[in-house]
Write a structure and sequence with these properties.
heterodimer, A: mainly alpha, 12 helices, 0% strand, B: alpha/beta, Rossmann fold, four-stranded antiparallel beta sheet, 32% helix, 21% strand, globular
Chain lengths: 274, 294
């Protein structure tokens, strides 16, 4: 066989990213239980919080002030959670299948892998969260889509934060191996109490508030409540969350590259696997 | 092909000026062992390569060259440093000191440029279990930036007798079929440098023989440089132009397979392997300029 013609430059880079995304999509597409699993938990969460919401609407004036405030909160929290899992579990699939070495022996650059993980996470998050969002309309007469631009903005901010956590966890797994894999599910929950998903920031003890305002998600959920309760989109909250997201994603990207370099230095890339 | 001690090899190292082009694929002539690769630039240059983990030196200052069209086998017992050496050549492991240059690119600073023209197969590094063979190969055509990827996949499936298995997930293949799929992946970009770790492990004699024939064609007709780690001495005898014997992170002897057998006064390469692994060579170790025993 003669040497095949090759792509180069940006086209080759985008094709490599696309190849890794395609790898995850093919695996997802080929397994209906996997697809169902993606949508299962967000839907169950939405149903539970829908009933809780129904109950509190007659027992709490705060919840009653905006229909769907709890459902909206749980749907957006799941966006963050799924975005994180979309990155970290996709990466873990490479480790579980002992495929990481073959990827890094190809011309795939570490940052291209990160870009592919993030793109895959976007698809997985949509597959996971959209059915729950849609199902909330007939079940609870709450359409999160009525938030319009605010939904797009908050959804994007939470995606970026989830990707940051996922990339950081992936880097830790690359460096410390599968003993760190549970971080994929656990680390994001460290942000849950600080994100003020179901309560306003000022309900926290003052010293915790100082920490909470350092998380993009706290500003997102504060902003979501303002939209649902007051019908106002607070640009200041959006911009604070965006700035923090930029810090988070830069830190996570650097950490991912740093952990890759450390794994390469210690010969861990060939040994990844169960 | 590159006979003699490491000392001789180190002194004869071919200069690698950027002006000297790497030969195009297919231009490598069919050299026989012990023929000098006159004027050719090495596809792989390993220079005083060392990997230390604390006080332990997994690879200890080894140097060798690998030329287009040449097949070199790394032999040694467990822990001799073969896998560590292969990992550094593939850019998966950062050397503590020394350098690896592949196709003119330093693997520490510019690995990607070389990686697009290299490939690797090992039964110990898996491929995605849930993908079919055809899907996996298509993904790798994209990773290697190959135009007309689908056509390339069909050609590769045919070459490795995998057409009937094209839609079978890798996780449902037998060990031998997986090995063939791994070799198909390793050939997908028609590499200039092919690194193989136990390439015919788990293959039945017939398939193993055909694969070895294919590897011979890859090197001698295609002009690829092949670095091979294997414990199958018959395979090494057939494929390798040169053997590097490793022990405790060092290259302790090298030469053409038949030459090694004769020099050690043994019946076959397996006996040479055992003698070197057990340090029963009775050979007086030679000193290289940097004090390395060869």
């Amino acid at each position: 066989m003669s040497a095949p013609a090759r792509l180069s430059g940006l086209e080759a880079s985008i094709t490599r990213i696309g190849a890794v995304v395609m790898r995850y999509i093919l695996v997802m597409k080929g397994s209906w239980p996997r697809l169902a699993e993606l949508a299962y938990w967000p839907t169950v969460q939405m149903i539970i919080w829908g009933f809780v919401s129904n109950f509190f609407e007659t027992h709490s004036s705060w919840v009653a002030s905006a229909a769907g405030i709890l459902i909206g909160a749980v749907l957006l929290w799941d966006t963050l959670f799924r975005a994180n899992l979309g990155v970290s579990v996709s990466f873990l699939e490479e480790v579980w299948s002992r495929h990481l070495a073959n990827l890094f022996i190809s011309p795939l650059r570490p940052y291209e892998l990160a870009a592919a993980l993030v793109t895959t996470s976007f698809v997985r998050t949509l597959v996971g969260v959209l059915p729950a969002m849609a199902l909330a309309i007939p079940l609870y007469h709450f359409s999160i889509f009525e938030m319009g631009f605010a939904l797009v903005a908050y959804f994007s901010l939470l995606l970026i934060m989830g990707w940051s956590i996922g990339l950081f966890v992936s880097g830790v797994v690359m460096r410390y191996g599968l003993s760190a894999e549970s971080l994929a599910w656990l680390l994001v929950f460290a942000f849950a109490p600080l994100s003020c998903i179901y309560y306003p920031i000022d309900s926290l003890p003052e010293w915790v508030q100082w920490i909470a305002v350092m998380t993009p998600s706290a500003h997102v959920f504060e902003g979501m409540r303002a939209v649902l309760q007051e019908g106002v989109f607070h640009w200041d909250l959006f911009l604070k969350a965006l700035a923090l997201d930029m810090v988070y994603i830069c830190f996570a990207g650097l950490a991912f590259m740093g952990f890759f370099a450390a794994a390469r230095d210690r010969g861990l890339l060939l040994q990844q696997g169960e | 092909m590159r006979p003699g001690s490491i000392c001789v090899q180190a002194m004869n190292k071919i200069e690698t000026s950027p002006e000297r082009p790497i030969p195009d694929r297919g231009s490598a002539d069919k050299r026989l062992p012990h023929e000098e690769p006159a004027g050719e630039r090495p596809a792989v240059q390993v220079d005083r390569l060392t990997k230390a983990y604390g006080p332990v030196r997994a690879v200890d200052g080894i140097s060798f060259d690998l030329y287009p069209g040449e097949t070199v086998a790394l032999l040694g017992g467990n822990g001799a440093g073969k896998t560590t050496t292969l990992s550094m050549i593939l850019g998966l492991l950062k050397p503590s000191s020394g350098s690896v240059t592949v196709l003119g690119h330093d693997m520490s600073s510019r690995p990607i440029a070389a990686l697009s023209r290299m490939n690797f197969a090992s039964p110990y590094v898996d491929l995605p279990q849930r993908l079919t063979i055809a899907e996996m190969l298509l993904i790798y055509t994209k990773l290697y930036g190959i135009r007309k990827g689908r056509r390339r996949v069909e050609e590769t499936l045919e070459r490795f007798d995998l057409v009937a298995l094209r839609d079978r997930p890798l996780g449902k293949l037998s060990a031998g079929q997986k090995t063939r799929a791994g070799l198909a992946k390793a050939h997908i970009n028609e590499p200039d440098v092919l690194v193989l770790d136990e390439p015919t492990a788990s293959l039945d004699p017939d398939t193993g023989d055909r694969i070895r024939g294919d590897l011979e064609t890859t090197a001698k007709v295609g002009g690829a440089a092949i670095l091979l780690a294997s414990h199958n001495m018959d395979e090494v005898m057939r494929l390798a132009d040169r053997v590097l014997m490793m022990r405790a992170g060092r290259i302790v002897d090298e030469g053409a397979p038949r030459e090694l057998v004769d020099r050690h006064g043994r019946r076959d390469l397996e006996e040479v392997f055992l003698a070197i692994a057990r340090d029963q060579t009775g050979h007086e170790h030679r000193e290289t300029p940097d004090g390395e025993k060869a």
